[in-house]
Amino acid sequence: MKTLKLNFTIPEEVAEALKTRVSKRKRSAFVAAAVLDKLKELEQEQLRQALMEGYQARREEDTEINKKWEAATLEGWSR
Known about the structure:
Elements: H1 12-21, H2 27-74
């Protein structure tokens, strides 16, 4: 896999925790895995949001169809 060197700033506490828990030779892989996990989480959240919006739109459409269907099925029935 092709790699790219990046520079970014993180809180000091996070940097210290990383230094104490992950060996120097494995830090890049650790950070890459953490970023990838977060990106997947964001993607899933965006998908969930899109599905919710779709379901809500569909529910409104279904409600309209049901109203029309009820009116059509009750035509001709005397009450």
